[in-house]
Amino acid sequence: MKRRGAGLLILWKPVIRYDCAHDYAHRDRYNLKGEQRKEELAMSYAEALTFADTDIKKKTKVIVKRMEEVNAELIYEFDMYVLAHPEFADAIPNGAIVAMQLEGDEEFNEWSRKLAEKHAEEGQPIVFVRIKKLRPFVSRIEELELERVA
């Protein structure tokens, strides 16, 4: 499932669970409707554990990259907002960590909160900027040309 916001593309993926119950190594896939599909992993338990660990680490890197991309987009949007509304920045304490939050994206919000808390020093204020609504992204290109090479 895809949802497009203002310059953001948020993807939801099915849940994948590795298991060795039922006397064989397998992977359970759950789609967005909660339907389950079992896939046997034709390997030993030790090989299945290594395979699952590698797969999870790879997917974790993809998720972190997505979070970083969303965060960069929101920081850019916030910077543009503050340029247009400088009085808004007055409410942010000096030296505060400013963490982005996106209404309706709890996975991103939790990641952003944990990141802010991890980097905050003792007594350093943390300010959460909750972005409630984004306008549709509109390109500023007024004219362009495509040239086919081959």
Keywords, separated by commas or semicolons:
150 residues; alpha+beta; three-stranded antiparallel sheet; two-stranded antiparallel sheet; extended
Report on this model:
The structure is a single chain. This protein is an alpha+beta fold and 150 residues long. The protein has one domain (2-131). The protein is built from 2 helices and 7 strands. The strands form 3 sheets. Strands 3-4-5 form a 3-stranded antiparallel beta sheet, with helices on one face. Strands 1-2 form a two-stranded antiparallel ribbon. β6, α2 and β7 form a beta-alpha-beta unit. The longest helix has 40 residues, at 45-84. It is extended. Residues 1-10 have low confidence and may be disordered.
Share in β-strands: 15-25%
**Secondary-structure element string:** EEEEEHEHE
What gross morphology would you assign?
extended
Class computed from helices, strands and strand pairing: alpha+beta
Rg on CA atoms, Å: 21 Å
List low-confidence stretches.
1-10
Overall mean pLDDT stands at: 84
The count of β-strands is 7
Oligomer: single chain
Count of domain modules: 1
How are the strands of the largest sheet arranged?
Answer: 3-4-5
Helix fraction by DSSP (H/I, runs of at least 4): 25-40%
Q: Helix tally? A: 2
Largest sheet: 3 strands, antiparallel
Summarize the structure.
This protein has 150 residues and is an alpha+beta fold. The chain is built from 2 helices and 7 strands, in the order E-E-E-E-E-H-E-H-E.
Helix and strand arrangement:
Layout lengths: L1 E3 L4 E3 L3 E5 L6 E5 L5 E5 L4 H40 L12 E6 L3 H14 L6 E6 L19
Parallel strand pairs: 6-7
Antiparallel strand pairs: 1-2, 3-4, 4-5
